[in-house]
Amino acid sequence: MIDSETAVARCADLVETARRLGADAADAVTTAQASESVSIRLGKLEEVERSEGESISLRVMVGQRSASIQTSDFSRDSFAELAERALAMARLAPEDPYSGLAPQDRLFTGAIPDLALADPHEPSPEALREAALEAEDAARAIPGVTKSDGGSASFSQSVSALVTSHGFAHGYEATGHSLSASVVAGEGGRMQTDYDYRAARHRADLPGPAAIGAEAGRRAVAKLDPKSMPSGPLPVVFDPRVGNGLIGHLLGAMSGPAVARKSSFLLGKEEDELFDSAIRILEEPHRPRGLRSRPFDGEGLPTNTRALVENGRIFGWLTNAAAARQLEAPLTGHAARGGGGAPGVAASNVHLEPGTLSRDELIADIADGVLVTSVFGQGVNLVTGDYSRGANGFRIIDGQIAGPVAEITIAGNLLAMFRALVPANDLAMIHAVNVPTLRVDGMTVAGE
Length: 448
Prior knowledge:
By secondary structure, the chain is of the alpha+beta class. The chain contains nine helices and 19 strands. The chain folds into two domains: 4-221, PmbA/TldD fold, CATH 3.30.2290.10; 226-448, no CATH class. A hairpin with a 7-residue loop joins strand 11 and strand 12 (344-345). Helix 1 (4-20) packs across helix 2 (76-92) and helix 3 (125-140) runs parallel beside helix 4. The longest helix is centred in the first third of the chain and has 17 residues, at 4-20. The N and C termini lie far apart (56 Å). This is Metallopeptidase TldD-related protein.
């Protein structure tokens, strides 16, 4: 696989070609990835997968018209043909008053910070197999586990590079490790499934495979013999592995392109106290080894640590250059690039700061409520903020976990949910978006 220096050089060649052929401005993005994964099921090797891929995308501007195109052919002849096709497309495209590169005076300058995103240790296929086997064995050893959907282990390497025609040229490398296990507890109509999964930049930051497997087994067994529960307005407590979805909805509504389309429930509420004043949500793009850490955004702007929510208010909108121009809003360094096309918007590492109460203390005064450990369905309207999801979890009675519940629905409006949100003190920094256990009173639970 290519390194970051080679990726930058290829982008520079393509941008130079596009300018020579008539582009007023251009940028190019190279992405490369190699991954290997091993899956075990019932103690036997089920799948070994190895993949490698490289691609380069070009965006050209002719006046206020632009077009994007992508290829995996890195030959010079291919670059010339690619640039010519992109320019022909751009000349036929409608004018967009908001398109264009980010302002040159706002570009990232200086040395790329060392964010420790690349682990120098690459596990062998045999080591991946042993880790997957250990995870599954530990899950199957939990009393009550009856079947296995398998254990898996993987390792990946990636390279990203961006070059623009107005002076930006940088790239960086990263790695990823993951472990998972998924099992079934019970027999026949009693069967319940669950899993555990962890990912990290460095293998040393992952739990041991046995810990992953044992957690998957315990989760599945704990769900056996679920019941429904009465309907009504009740306190809902979100386990961290589903509570982070609430922050995901917030980030989606803070997206500049969504606001520009008038498809955000936060439109017109940027000065409102949406959360309790004690709530603070931070973004840390420079967190060492962070799953979404990045030294610069998808348009070459610097990324910065900031409070997304403080004193009850959001800081503003997450913007790329086009959204900032359309909204007449500040540039925030949130441009994101995928395989091709114009930049989108995405946040980096985000977490909600912990509160002062333990989980047990958070639920101690709940006479009747529910701890939600999984949600399903697509019942979230980011235009209105209406929230309705199918859910499974555990009933809370008199401040104690009273047994599993399933096939219930929880509903509310995200604005009201944010205002009522109370965090516990059990924050663990293990995902890209991290939250402690969260309590939201007054939601509607539909059960029996």
